[in-house]
Design brief:
Blueprint: H1 4-20, H2 26-32, H3 39-51, E1 55-56, E2 65-66, H4 68-77, H5 85-97, H6 102-117, E3 120-123, E4 133-142, E5 145-152, E6 156-163, H7 170-184, H8 189-194, H9 201-219, E7 226-228, H10 230-234, H11 243-253, H12 257-261, E8 270-275, E9 287-296, E10 300-309, H13 314-335, E11 347-348
Parallel strand pairs: 8-11
Antiparallel strand pairs: 1-2, 3-7, 3-10, 4-5, 5-6, 8-9, 9-10
Helix pairs in contact: 1-4, 2-3, 6-13
């Protein structure tokens, strides 16, 4: 744990580096901070911060820059990050100017977010958080071969061939389908797994494949996300030579950018920040990601986020992502005829 003074000095270093993009010397911190200590005291505190891994000195005689650990301390110290009212009004006004179509909302959200934070913005198309069982048909083909036809909510149809270890006549398949239709109506794969039913071996086998088919649907990639702001990213001092951003652009071209930036556990009502080497993919170790869910948890959810260098304006980025997530959730609630409640509103960390 850092003392209050040491924490203030660290946060001052982060703020200065975010603005200037050059190593921060002790004299600057002593001059611009409101802590009221000498340069010598700041140097001692900075030596402690360096020893503990919160800051790095690129060269012996140079100033300091924050490490991933330093940025993490800074982000965790941020509290109460509402977007300025003027920016809220501007966003609300612009959304009132576009048509009431999801595609228009998402395109505008990506463009606005990129412009406001000067980094790459990503907004995904909302999809059901978990597929729900609607109807099942079992069709006998030949010998023990059977076709499973599974209909999910949202007009999604899945098909699969299975081989029983015996010949199962059509009348028995129809009976199995009728029973499972009654037992599993409107359930997710997790809810089906949790049901404690006494099933015949054939019913157990069909249920096994149903769960696999539904889980496969849940794991399918999002539609191609809305991306904007590459030109902002390329203008950042870290990427003026271009080579550091090539791996990121390659992921975008391969349509695997989203899969690599969304955390495995992205909580519904929270803006999350992943910094540098906290990212699971090495291609993102020079970047930070600020990301949040939006939408209606039991109906359809998407993600809205920002990718930028670790030296990004975290406070403004977090508040902007949080507010746009809130706006998109409100719009989705209206689309589904739902009353918007605070339960849909994301919290910032």
């Amino acid at each position: 744990m850092l003392s209050e003074r040491t924490g203030q000095i660290l946060n001052s270093i982060v703020n200065q580096y975010i603005v200037r993009a050059v190593p921060v010397p002790s004299q600057t911190i002593a001059r611009v901070s409101s802590i009221g200590v000498s340069s010598a005291t700041v140097r001692n505190e900075m030596a402690h911060l360096e020893q503990e891994g919160y800051i790095i000195r690129p060269h012996t005689s140079a100033g300091s820059i924050p490490s991933d650990k330093g940025y993490r301390y800074y982000v965790e110290s941020l509290e109460d990050l509402p977007l300025p009212p003027a920016e809220q009004r501007m966003i609300s006004h612009l959304f009132h100017q576009v048509e009431s179509e999801v595609a228009e909302w998402l395109s505008l959200a990506a463009t606005l977010l990129a412009q406001m934070v000067q980094n790459v913005a990503i907004v995904t198309v909302p999809k059901p958080a978990a597929s729900k069982f609607k109807h099942l048909e079992l069709v006998a083909l030949q010998d023990s071969l059977t076709l499973i036809v599974l209909v999910l909510h949202g007009a999604k149809l899945k098909q699969r061939l299975i081989n029983f270890d015996r010949i199962v006549p059509q009348n028995e398949l129809t009976r199995i389908a009728n029973r499972l239709n009654g037992e599993y109506a409107d359930l997710t794969s997790q809810q089906i797994t949790a049901r404690e039913l006494v099933l015949t071996p054939a019913e157990q086998e069909v249920t096994h494949y149903l769960r696999e088919m539904m889980q496969s649907e849940d794991e399918e990639e999002y539609e191609e996300p809305y991306l904007d702001g590459w030109h902002f990213m390329l203008s950042q001092p870290e990427f003026v030579q271009g080579r550091h951003i090539l791996s990121l652009m390659e992921l975008a071209e391969q349509r695997s950018l989203l899969k690599n930036i969304v955390p495995e556990r992205l909580e519904g009502k929270r803006v999350q920040v992943i910094i540098g080497k906290e990212n699971k993919d090495k291609a993102f170790h020079n970047y930070s990601i600020v990301i949040s869910r939006y939408g209606i948890p039991e109906e359809a959810v998407g993600t809205v986020g920002v990718v930028g260098p670790t030296r990004m304006p975290y406070a403004h980025t977090i508040s902007t992502v949080g507010y746009l997530s809130l706006v998109l959730s409100q719009l989705m609630a209206g689309l589904y005829g739902r009353d918007f409640t605070s339960e849909l509103a994301p919290n910032s960390n």
